[in-house]
């Protein structure tokens, strides 16, 4: 297969261009080529654009959230077949190294965040997926692309954040950030049976959106309300059992450890563009446990089953849909939260 395609290319800090590129080909026998059926824009794409992701390479097509149809596979690919509909995994992993064998696949020595960061990603028409047997999950016939597009990144991020938080039945969980990742975090936190999920954001529309869909029980805008007082009111003055920091704002890390109860868990899955302060002298005696992480790619089979079984529904997150032709407009409305935008779905290029 040869020819040209359109895609969003990173040319350095602040410089994204929608331009023509070559259709990819198999480079390794473990590769697959996927025709993109639907993709999306992630907040981390803005981190790359802003120069805040040191591992990102210039002249790379952005994007890592996508689903599509397999059109070609390498000779060593065993599980994935041409013609199958698949959802991609943001993490590339070999399955054989020290970390992969222990389940820490996002730390794979030959992988990690590759797609849309170090190699061409999905905000285009075709994608080469390395280690395809690990990086692609077959989509059940009962599901559509809209159902599974979030399984590439923000859903496993939310699941990992909830898992790290060690949520127990009856707990009070605070989720800092009610954007797309915050919403998937709330969905996944709900699976562990907490008594209350408290959503925190400075954008009222996001809080209302999360509450309307039943992903949280209590909402707090810290610019208007006293978060500490609300949480202590739910916990007999103790503080939150678990706090999941998703927002990555200038002061949200500080908020996370302050609102947690003594001996609580602080789960950090946010991406920060600036260094954070860990004032141990102020938190001495709280005996907090901090856990950090991002996307954990090892749960996608489980997440696909949860979606298929109706336990998780990410479809409401898609508030806007447009063809690849208009993706730069999609970047604008997603970045600036225009027209109630939560998540943008990108459909194939229209010629």
Task: Summarize this structure as a short list of keywords or feature phrases.
single chain; 351 residues; alpha/beta; Quinone Oxidoreductase, Chain A, domain 1; Rossmann fold; seven-stranded mixed β-sheet; six-stranded parallel β-sheet; oxidoreductase; ADH-like_N
Describe the protein.
The protein has helices at residues 43-49, 98-101, 132-135, 145-148, 154-164, 180-190, 204-212, 227-234, 252-259, 280-283, 300-308, 327-335, and strands at residues 4-10, 16-22, 32-40, 60-61, 66-73, 85-88, 91-92, 112-113, 126-129, 136-138, 172-176, 196-200, 218-220, 240-245, 260-268, 289-292, 318-323, 343-347. With 351 residues, it is of the alpha/beta class. It has 2 domains: 4-153 and 296-347, Alpha-Beta Complex (Quinone Oxidoreductase, Chain A, domain 1); 156-292, Rossmann fold, CATH 3.40.50.720. The relative contact order is 0.14. The model has no long low-confidence stretch (mean pLDDT 96). Residues 14-346 form the Enoyl reductase (ER) domain. It comes from Pseudoflavonifractor capillosus. Pfam families: ADH_N, ADH_zinc_N. One of its GO terms (molecular function) is oxidoreductase activity.
């Amino acid at each position: 297969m040869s020819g040209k395609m359109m895609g969003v290319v990173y040319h350095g800090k602040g410089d994204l261009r929608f331009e023509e590129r070559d259709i990819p080909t198999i480079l390794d026998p473990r590769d697959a080529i996927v025709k993109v059926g639907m993709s999306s824009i992630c907040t981390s794409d803005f981190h790359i654009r802003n120069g805040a992701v040191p591992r990102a390479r210039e002249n790379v097509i952005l994007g890592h959230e996508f689903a599509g149809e397999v059109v070609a596979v390498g000779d060593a690919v065993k599980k994935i077949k041409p013609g199958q509909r698949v959802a991609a995994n943001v993490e590339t992993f070999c399955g054989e190294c020290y970390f992969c064998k222990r389940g820490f696949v996002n730390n794979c020595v030959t992988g990690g965040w590759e797609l849309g960061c170090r190699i061409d990603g999905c905000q285009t028409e075709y994608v080469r997926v390395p280690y395809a047997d690990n990086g692609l999950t077959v989509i059940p016939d009962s599901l559509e692309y809209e159902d599974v597009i979030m399984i590439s990144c923000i859903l496993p991020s939310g699941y990992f954040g909830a898992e790290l938080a060690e949520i127990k039945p009856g707990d009070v969980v605070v989720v800092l950030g009610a954007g797309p990742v915050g919403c998937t975090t709330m969905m996944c936190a709900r699976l562990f049976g907490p008594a209350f999920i408290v959503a925190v954001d400075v954008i009222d529309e996001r809080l209302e959106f999360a509450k309307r869909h039943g992903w949280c029980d209590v909402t707090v805008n810290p610019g208007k309300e006293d978060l500490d007082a609300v949480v202590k009111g739910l916990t007999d003055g103790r503080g939150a059992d678990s706090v999941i920091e998703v927002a990555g704002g200038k002061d949200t890390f500080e908020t996370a450890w302050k609102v947690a109860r003594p001996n609580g868990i602080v789960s950090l899955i946010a991406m920060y563009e600036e260094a954070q302060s860990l004032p141990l002298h102020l938190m001495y005696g709280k005996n907090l446990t901090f856990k950090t992480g991002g996307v954990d790619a090892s749960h996608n089979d489980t997440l696909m089953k949860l979606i298929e079984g109706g336990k998780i529904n990410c479809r409401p997150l898609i508030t806007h849909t447009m063809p690849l032709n208009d993706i730069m407009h999609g970047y604008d409305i997603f970045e600036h939260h225009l027209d109630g935008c939560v998540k943008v779905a990108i459909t194939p290029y229209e010629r």
